[in-house]
Amino acid sequence: MDDELQSLEAELQALRPAAPSAALRQRIAAALAEPAGAARPSRSRWWWLALVPVPLAATVAVLLTVSRSGPDAPAGRESLPPRVATPGANTPETTATDRVGEVLKPIAAAQILYAANDEGLVLLEDGTPARRERLRYVETVRWRDPRTNAALTWRVPREEVRITPVRYQ
């Protein structure tokens, strides 16, 4: 086995790269003879043109939003005259958003802790050592309309930071 490997090694050491062709030598000589300033312009100077549509679209979106909320915008709830609420009154000027509380009833509420990180010891302003914990919750409230059985689920993320003073005994 060693003899075969040694003969293979001897063959590999005897190999030499092929000499470059005359055409290759001429192309290299022509490329070296060109002046340095005659290089082709780089295509990388125009990459910023690809970014133009993004700010343009943002500007159009802002202009459309501002133009729709101008003085010619349709009157909303803020332009209605103030009125006194009377229990049980269902007047024609009562809007659908006023009746939401009458229709939807909360049926479930939950707080789900999905992350708790102990951030270690910290020093309070008075120099007292304390332990800081960061808790992340998702609060979920489910509402249901008993008449139509329509449901609404409301999820709100909440982050709580607890700082507990530490007493060493």
Features:
169 residues, alpha+beta, 27% helix
Summarize the structure in words.
This protein starts with a helix and ends with a strand. It is an alpha+beta fold and 169 residues long. Strands 1-2-3 form a three-stranded antiparallel beta sheet. The protein has a domain at 101-169. The mean pLDDT is 79. The chain has helices spanning 2-14, 22-33, 53-68, 100-103, and strands at residues 105-123, 129-144, 151-165.
What topology, given as strand order, has the largest sheet? Answer: 1-2-3
Shape: elongated
Number of strands: 3
Strand content range: 25-35%
- Gyration radius, to the nearest Å? 38 Å
Give a short overview.
By secondary structure, the chain is of the alpha+beta class. The chain is 27% helix and 30% strand. The radius of gyration is 38 Å and the shape is elongated.
Topology:
Layout: H1 2-14, H2 22-33, H3 53-68, H4 100-103, E1 105-123, E2 129-144, E3 151-165
Antiparallel strand pairs: 1-2, 2-3
